[in-house]
Amino acid sequence: MEKAENEKKASAVSDVGAWAMNVTSSVGIIMANKQLMSSSGFGFSFATTLTGFHFALTALVGLVSNATGLSASKHVPLWELLWFSLVANISIAAMNFSLMLNSVGFYQISKLSMIPVVCVMEWVLHSKHYSREVKASVMVVVVGVGICTVTDVKVNAKGFICACTAVFSTSLQQISIGSLQKKYSIGSFELLSKTAPIQAISLLIFGPFVDYFLSGRFISTYKMTYGAILCILISCALAVFCNISQYLCIGRFSATSFQVLGHMKTVCVLTLGWLIFDSEMTFKNIAGMVLAVVGMVIYSWAVELEKQRKPKVTAHGKNSMTEDEIRLLKEGIEHMNLKDMELGDSKP
């Protein structure tokens, strides 16, 4: 019992660490990119190519880690890696096009819609169900973030198509991260090490053309300065931590949890924008942020409540169980006669 309790505490500390790394690195990279890309900063308007730089450094870190034996390399079929990388790159490009073609308000609404889309896709693909408390908390978060971020809302046909593509591909990518890790029993960093080189090569080849369509300029025309190079290096370093922590979080939790609690980054970005860049902070922003944080707290409570309910559910009520559900069930009945219980086969 004491060993199990210690393992539970260690797991909780690791979970908090993964979230802290993701929030810190994500907010940091947004601040660095704002300085790099804004007209008042270095005016580097090549977002897709910059993402290629991010994955190139991530791939290099993964290569060094594998070569030195710090991480193991497990087999994942090449076609799965190519398919995942294609979905991830479509997500990046579609997000950039959506931001270019749509108003900021509609862009924010499209990002908010990822939460219900992820929920529906997990229900369709993995037969996952959500309690009423979880659904209610998700709505509170969506409303709160919507209040503090959504401004003008203008829609056009091309922008709408790009936004739908971005939402669908990003949701599918985040769900696939967790499913691939479980399917091949591969760690988050190992999976990232395998997909990062493919994404880096493809983004560095096609990224400049995408950026030309977005900005009307090729990266070769940009006059690089030491300040811009330093900012790019900082952005790339933060991107490594951001990518690693994203895979860690989705591997440990679910894509839905990643989306809901990930909106804490939105709150942090708004607050830092107000403190550092003198962005406007209105009562509407503050009220929305408070509501979003309340929703996140409710969501955490609802997920914990759902976990406590699961051990009480007998296995014959389901056709199959996930590995997490089996673990929770075993913890709840460790003092009971296991011969009277029928555990379903775990999903890959």
TrEMBL record:
Lineage: Eukaryota, Viridiplantae, Streptophyta, Embryophyta, Tracheophyta
GO cellular component: membrane
Domain Sugar phosphate transporter: 26-300
Compartments where located: Membrane
Organism this protein belongs to: Microthlaspi erraticum
Ranges annotated as spanning the membrane: 44-64, 76-99, 191-214, 226-248, 283-302
PANTHER family in the record: SOLUTE CARRIER FAMILY 35
Keyword presence, Membrane: yes
Name the record gives this protein: Sugar phosphate transporter domain-containing protein
